[in-house]
Structures are given as structure tokens and as C-alpha cells.
What we know:
Layout: E1 3-10, H1 14-25, E2 30-34, H2 57-69, E3 74-77, E4 80-85, E5 89-93, E6 98-106, E7 110-113, H3 120-123, E8 128-129, H4 132-135, E9 144-147, H5 153-160, E10 167-170, H6 181-190, E11 193-195, E12 199-205, E13 208-214, E14 219-221, E15 224-226, E16 230-233, H7 236-240, E17 245-248, E18 251-254, E19 267-269, H8 280-315
Parallel strand pairs: 1-2, 1-6, 2-3, 6-19, 8-15, 9-10, 9-15, 10-11
Antiparallel strand pairs: 4-5, 5-6, 7-16, 12-13, 13-14, 17-18
Helix pairs in contact: 1-2, 1-8, 5-6
Transmembrane segments: 6-24
Pfam family, one: Pyr_redox_2
Domain FAD/NAD(P)-binding: 6-285
Amino acid sequence: MTERYAVVVVGGGTAGLSAALVLGRARHRTLVVDAGEPRNAPAAHMQGYLSRDGMPPADFLAVGREEVAGYGVELVRDRAVEVEKGEDFAVVLAGGRTVRARRLVIATGLKDELPAVPGVAERFGRDVLHCPFCHGWEVRDQPFGVLASSPASVHQALIVSQWSKDVRFFLHTVAEEELSDQDLRRLAAAGVDVVPGEVAELVVEDDRLTGVRLGDGTTHARSVLFVAPRPVPQTGLLERLGAELHETPFGAYPVVDPTGLTTVPGVWAAGNAIGFAEQVVHAASGGYRAASAIVGDLLMTDLDAAAQDLDAAAQE
């Protein structure tokens, strides 16, 4: 036996819950499949979301789940492992359940692969950070380090100088010759110190970051380290459906229109499923846009079918 929904939302983060809220209010039977792995789980607070600035991400999602449930949206803690498109969509869950849907919202987000430096993973979201817009205010004016992962990390080192004038750019595995003259001039103009040499480990004392140690034993006193994780888009379901992807410097993401509609009819994507830089506020907006487009799409589809039935009846 399979259950049929108007819409199945795969992903119970901000984008998925935002879509579910709109769909529930539009009286569409909706299921949210949530694997419970939000990208911002390591962070103690989220910032930059008007009226929710500083709210713990877990609390934000808990409120969201309560709100959508109030409109009859069903939520299940499970993982979508397979999807097939026929007359409608069949979504197979890891727990063994199969559900069908007329439309899909894929809000599976992405995973951050952290640099393999001892201490980075353990401190991530605390004093090892990746987004100054998310955390810069909270650590302002402290001694910053920036761990290079490629020459493009220069941009991160320049951006974080907005929040501290004590910034050291650790080249790590990047050779200084790989930086352009313009990069070097901008780093100098921003007052960013360039430190060659591979980083061996982080120094942690009393459960706080106190330094960055290089392979030669030199230790630089730092209380904050910015890193650039490698984003890994979770596009498996979209690929199985045959969605067109486009390559970016930050991974391959689905080609979408302004509402999030992919190249597969009936399938929308939102949040970090469409790009690495989608913050919580963007994800909420993307889920809303996708859901409102789906409401219109379903309505017009049903009205066209009803009009055909009326035409057929009139000809009898």
C-alpha cells in the first residue's frame, strides 16, 4: 500500500518547512521527510534573520515543525532513498515506506567537508567558523586566522577583515606564488598578514581555541579561525530524476527557474539544494516561492482537467 499526497517535501530544514507551511495553508495534503541533518546544526545561534537573530537553529526548526503541523502537514523522521517518476512520483523511504506525490520539493541541502587539520572538526561552529556574515559580529575585534584551502581563500581573508583588524592568512597548502599581484596588494591594503607554511594543528586550552600551530612548531596566538569547507551538494534524488545540473566552483547544482522549478516537470528545489550560499533567510524565501508556484501549478492542472471533462460532457 502506498499513500498519496499532493506534495512530498524531501528535507525538513528551513527551505522544506517554509514550503510546507505555504502548502499546508493552501490546503494541500503535504508530507515532509526529514533526515534530521541540518547544515547549521553545529552553530549555537543563527544570525541575520530579521526577528529571529540569535535564535538557536534547533529551536527555530522546532517552532517551524509545530507551525506546519498546525495546518495538517505530516512530518516523518526518515530518509528518502529512491524516487521514480511515472504518472506521479514514488518516493521510497529508508524505513520501508513508499509514498506517492503529484509534485516534489527537494530541499536536501548540502554537507560541508572540513579541512583535515586536527582540531578543526571538533571546534567547527564554535571558534572555527566559515561565514563572517553568520558569526562575524559575535567574534569581532578578536585575533582571526584564515586557513587557505585554495588561492580563492584570499577572498575570505579580505572579507573577514571587516570584523577584525588582526587577521593572519595561513597559506597552509597554498604556495605564495599562486597568489596574484592584485591578491597580495589587497591583502596588504587590508592589513592582513600572510603566513606561509602548512598548519599542523589547532591549539586548544580550557575548551577554547588559543592558537594555530604550523608544521615547524611555530605557534600563532589566535582565538578564531575561519575555514572554507568544501560544499558537497546532496543531489542524488535530482540526478535519479534526470534533472539538469550546472557546474559551479562550489559543486554541481540543479538548473532552476526563479521559482525553483528544475528541468524535471513537477520537481522544485530550494535552499542549499540550489546553491552553497543560501543562508537561512534565503532558504525560507526559496521554499515559499517554490510552494506558491506549486499551488498555482496544481490549481491550473486541475482546472484544465475539469474544463476538459465539461467539454466532453457537453458533446455527449
